[in-house]
Amino acid sequence: MHEELNQGLIEFLKASPTPFHATANLVRLLHAANFKRLDERDTWNIDAGGRYYITRNDSSIIAIQVGTQPITERGMRLVGAHTDSPCLRVKPQPELQNQGFWQLGVEVYGGALLAPWFDRDLSIAGRVTFSRDSRIESQLIDFHHPIATIPNLAIHLNREANKGWAINAQNELPPILAQVPNQDGLDFRALLADQLGREHGLIADVVLDYELSLYDTQPAALIGLNQDFIAGARLDNLLSCYAGLQALLRTSPLETCLLVCHDHEEIGSTSACGADGPFLRQTLQRLFPKEDSLLRAISRSLFISADNAHALHPNYPDKHDANHGPKLNAGPVIKVNANQRYATNSETAGFFRHLCLAEEIPVQCFTTRSDMGCGSTIGPITAGQLGIRTLDIGLPTFAMHSIRELAGSHDLTHLVKVLTAFYATPELP
What we know:
- By secondary structure, the protein is an alpha/beta fold.
- The protein contains 11 helices and 20 strands.
- The chain has a 9-stranded mixed β-sheet with strand order 1-2-3-13-4-14-18-16-17, with helices on both faces.
- It comes from Azomonas agilis.
C-alpha cells in the first residue's frame, strides 16, 4: 500500500499542473470507481448507496457516497481540501518584446515563494475558451515540455543577491519564451490555437480567453538516501486531495461520506466555487432537500479540513514553538489556533486522537509561535458557512508555497489510513 500510494501521488501530481487538470484527474479516478456525474443544471435523482460527483468551474469538485444509514441519525463525514496552489498566471495581453526576446507578462497567484521560480524549466497549462463553428467552447491544454524560463541575474551583476533582495514581480518575473528579431508575429493566442490543434485536433476560429499557469516540468519524486521524502510541486494541497480520494474509494456504503475539493483557497476562497461561496451548501441542499433533516444531519456531522502543516525545519528550529514542532514521517498533524485561524476544538481534536490511537497511527500537534502570525484554511470558513463541527489537520511539509515542496514518504499512508477509518466510523462525537 505504501509504495502504491506514493507512486499514485507522483503520477497524480504530474498530470495535475492546474486546478482544472487536478479536477479532471479526480473525475477520471471517480469514473473508474463507478461514481456518476451530476449536472447542476439537471434534476437530481439520488439513491441510497449511490456514488456521485459534481464539479463547478471545472476546478472544484464534490464527491458523495450516499450511505444506506439515515443521515439524520448518523450524520455525514466530510473531508475538505483545495485544488489550487500558488503560481504565476499569464496576463490577458501578455506579449512582451525586450532586447530581442519574446516574454510573457505574468501575475502572482497566491502567496508564492518567488525566488525558486528562477532557473526552472517551465511549461504552461490551464483552460482555454474559444469559438468554433459559431459555438463557444472550453478545453484544457498542457504544453508538457519546457517552453519558458526565468533566468537569474548573474552574481557578478548583483553582488547583493546572497544577502537577499526584494523581487519585483512586474519587472523580474516575465519568463522568456524565445528569441525574436522583432515584435511582428508575437501572438500568444495564435500559439494557444496551435496547441489546441496539436493536443486535441481542434481548429479554433478565435481564441477568446484563457486561464493559464506556468509550472515546473520537473516531476515529483521519492528522494533521500532511504527515499524518506516526496519532493514535488503542488503538494499543498493536491496531496490532501489525493489522500481524501483514496480514503473515499476504500470506504463501505453504510455511511454518507463526502470529499470536497475547492479552488481559490490560496486567494481567500471567496468565489462561486470556493469554500467561502455557496457550492457545498447548495450541493447539500439538493442532495437532502428537506431543510429540517439536513440541519439535523449537519448537527451530527464532522468536517475534516486537510491542508499541509509546517514541519520543523532543522535549519530554522526557532520558527516553531518548542513544544509544537511536527516532524516528517511522524503522522498527521492536528492544527490548533486560539483565534480560530484553525477550526479545531477539544472535542474534534479528541475524536481524531482517539481515531489515530485505534488505528495505531502516530499523531502530532501544531500551533504557531505566540509572536508570529498564523495562516488559515477552509476549515473555519466551512464551519462558518454550515455550522458544522470542524477539525483542521495536515501532513507536515517543508518549503510550503515554493515551486517544489517536500513531505515525508510515509505520511501519505498514515493519512489515507486515518481518513478511511473516519469515513467508516459509525459514531461521531
